[in-house]
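Appendix B. Chain record.
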Amino acid sequence: MKKLIVIKYGELSTKKDNINFFLKTLKNNIDYALKNINHEIKYDHGRMYIDVAESDLETSVDVLKKVFGIHEIVIGYIIDTTDFDEIKANLEILVDEEEFSTFKVETKRVNKDYPLTSPEISKQLGAVILKKKKIVSVDVHEPEIVVNVEIRLTETLMYLKGIPGCGGYPVSTLGKGLLMLSGGIDSPVAGYLAMKRGVKLECLYFESPPHTSEAAKEKVMDLAKVLSKYNNDIKVHIINFTKIQEEILKNIPHEYLITIMRRMMYRISEEISRKVNAKIIVNGESIGQVASQTLTSMNAINRVVKMPVIRPVACLDKLEIIDISKKIGTYEISIRPFEDCCTIFVPKHPVINPSAELCEEYEKLIPYEEYIRETVRNHEVIKLSSIEGKYQDLL
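Structure tokens predicted for this chain:
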């Protein structure tokens, strides 16, 4: 028997006329993720089959766990025959080292001229397992393992346990978004959830030197690096927010500092989005978590942009967000004690029900349009590759 990796699509199988686009994108994403591993991919509308050296199986599966669009990963066993005696003999070998108490056999036949029907095959193969394992039993409703047998034209595929994949849609099938990435817990999780829905991400980080440190910037780069494992690669646009933030601090009543600051960030995010052809802005705002995330605050802040703003964690509580951050590997990075520009000038009593009209009056006190043009024009871009593990300055 020869081992290979079998990919199950899950949600992708619901696509109809455009399924080929989704499957081709998934294949391209897997090709990129396995760039450093010699592999071959074949696929149809039901399954994807990845052939790698047996020594690369474990590494390949670890990589595939981070590829969106995959519902389940299984290690399959191919035999170059459809002879039923050979199938039974190899099945004995396959289940010999497996520990289970209940099972069922599911059979599919590509070759409909095969001399046995699928139920007949399942029944006879089940008898082989019962004879081999002796103390096991059949459970067709909730079996501990499912023995899958697919009889093709000239070969047979068998597989047992599956490994959960990320699910969702392949990244880039739904276009591009710009993630407002801070050093906190929420925004990386928001980025992960957006990618799961097929959104290819670029990131935007606001720094405010000397008020924010290089360590804070490095923290965000490390978060982006984790996200790049799901996105294949990722660009981080770094905005120097110092001049704008200092002008806000000097001229705006303190209770409105955060509201005005967020409105400026949204304006800049929309400008960068247009430049990179992003269709949406993504951020980690969660309803009610801080003063700028009350419904009134969100409304007052959101008014400055016309582009859709997607908030994947808006209706999750903090513990739910933390659970996801631990799952994807960003939590330990996010809790490093380095402040970003969203936290360095937080007023003692920020307004929780700001007036959008009052915001407009306050903003007349600073020449923000000039500052925004300057900072967008001079911003830095860094590209992170999930394969190379390096940073690359682009601008």
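Further analysis of this model is presented in Appendix C.
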